[in-house]
């Protein structure tokens, strides 16, 4: 039986996934970025929705992601090696793009989830340099808003409205907790 461990997180509003699996009885690693097309500026959005290419001999579909500079110029570990589309028939569109650590020059190297996470975050940083006007997903309400209409708190992005709502909720929760403690200590 084959096993795979998957970690998912978000960094600067971009979702990413890390996978560890077994390949030829050795640990293998990969990471992927999830890019929602609705968050991309309209003038470059379709550059991420690549047309399918068909291999005449195997009839398999593939995508020439290496030919699109907005994908290939991201700081991948040894280049982009994965591309997948999501969102057909009117659903929100997204692409999953990533790389692996199964290259000849990876032989003899030991990787960890922390190391691969650092690489994934570096890839996200380089992607955001390539697409600085990408809208970001608010950690509070999930909406996509322009970067200049929000703030980073740690590694999380919040719209200005989302941050205000989050802070208000935190204050109300703390007041409720304090009130509950006060009532509890009075009844003793």
- Fraction in beta strands: 25-35%
Structure annotation, total helices: 4
The rough form would be described as globular
Summing up helix and strand content along with how strands pair, one would put the structural category as alpha+beta
Question: Could you give the order of the helices and strands?
Answer: EEEHEEHEEHEEEEH
Number of domains: 2
Overall radius of gyration: 21 Å
Spatial strand order of the main sheet: 1-2-3-7-6
Summarize the biggest pleated sheet: 5 strands, antiparallel
Helix percentage range: 25-40%
Average pLDDT figure: 88
Span from first to last CA?
58 Å
Classified by CATH, the class of the largest domain is Alpha Beta
Question: Uncertain runs with pLDDT below 50, 5 residues or more?
Answer: none
CATH architectural grouping of the largest domain: 2-Layer Sandwich
Structure description:
This protein is α+β, with helices and mostly antiparallel strands and 188 residues long. It folds into two domains: 4-135, Yope Regulator, Chain: A, CATH 3.30.1460; 138-188, no CATH class. It contains four helices and eleven strands. The chain has helices spanning 42-48, 69-72, 113-130, 160-186, and strands spanning 4-11, 14-23, 26-36, 53-54, 61-62, 82-86, 94-100, 135-137, 144-146, 150-153, 156-159. It has a five-stranded antiparallel β-sheet, with helices on one face.
């Amino acid at each position: 039986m084959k096993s795979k461990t998957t970690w998912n997180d978000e960094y600067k509003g971009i979702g990413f996934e890390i996978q560890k699996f077994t390949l030829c009885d050795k640990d293998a690693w990969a990471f992927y970025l999830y890019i929602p097309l609705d968050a991309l500026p309209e003038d470059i959005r379709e550059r991420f929705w690549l047309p399918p290419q068909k291999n005449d001999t195997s009839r398999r579909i593939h995508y020439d992601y290496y030919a699109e500079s907005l994908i290939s110029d991201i700081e991948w570990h040894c280049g982009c090696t994965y591309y997948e589309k999501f969102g057909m028939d009117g659903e929100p569109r997204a692409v999953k793009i990533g790389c692996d650590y199964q290259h000849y020059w990876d032989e003899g190297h030991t990787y960890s989830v922390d190391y691969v996470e650092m690489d994934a975050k570096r890839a996200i940083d380089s992607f955001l340099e390539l697409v600085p006007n990408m809208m970001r997903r608010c950690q509070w309400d999930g909406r996509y808003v322009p970067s200049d209409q929000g703030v980073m708190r740690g590694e999380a992005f919040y719209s200005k409205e989302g941050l205000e709502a989050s802070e208000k909720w935190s204050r109300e929760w703390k007041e409720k907790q304090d009130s509950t403690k006060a009532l509890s200590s009075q009844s003793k």
